[in-house]
Amino acid sequence: MRKILIDTNILISAAYSKKGLPRQAFDKAVSSPLYHCLICEQTLEEFWRIANRKFPERIGDFESFMAQALLMMEAILVPTDAYDDEKEIRDVKDRPILRAAINAGVDILLTGDKDFTESMITNPKIMKAAEFVRL
Q1: Burial of 34 by CB count in 10 Å (0-12 exposed, 13-18 middle, 19+ buried)?
Q2: Domains in the chain: how many in total?
Q3: Exposure of 51 by Cβ count < 10 A (0-12 exposed, 13-18 middle, 19+ buried)?
Q4: pLDDT over 60 (residue 94)
Q5: Which of 2, 61, 94, 115 has the most CB atoms at less than 10 Å from its CB?
Q6: What is the pLDDT of residue 78?
Q7: What pLDDT is recorded for position 72?
Q8: How many other β-carbons are positioned within 10 Å of the β-carbon of residue 18?
């Protein structure tokens, strides 16, 4: 079973629309017995911060989505230890996400964030929604 850490932008997009690649990637990840899906504390906090700021009129939809999503994912806490590889991530706010992925031993970090997708990090494998759906 491969471990996947799902990043905020995938969750926000999947919650916002039942159509599109982020939702397809999310559905594939959480419904397949091949994957064990994780979400970290920072992602949860960022999810709610963005949902409340950008989509206050849809907060009920976001609450329903996340209530179901959390039944299919394991929440993890982020350790504070820094890693050499994290310097590859331009946005320091994204570095705890990488720490969570490394400490949880995930195989895949599912994200659309360019700070991850344009980095040279190879472990865990950084995958965009489209790439994961084609997998």
Answers
A1: exposed
A2: 1
A3: buried
A4: yes
A5: 94
A6: 67
A7: 92
A8: 11
What DSSP string describes 27-52?
HHHHH-TTEEEEEEHHHHHHHHHHHH
pLDDT on residue 33: 94
Q: Among 23, 28, 27, which Cα is nearest to 10's?
A: 23
83: containing domain: 2-134
Task: Give the tens place of pLDDT for each residue, 44-90.
Answer: 999 999 999 999 999 999 999 999 999 999 888 766 566 677 777 77
| Domain at 12, CATH number | 3.40.50.1010
Q: Three-state SS string across 71-125, please?
A: HCCEEECCCCCCCHHHHHCCCHHHHHHHHHHHHHCCCEEECCCHHHHCCCCCCCE
Neighbours of 20 (CB within 10 A): 13
Of 69, 78, 70, the C-alpha closest to 97 is 78
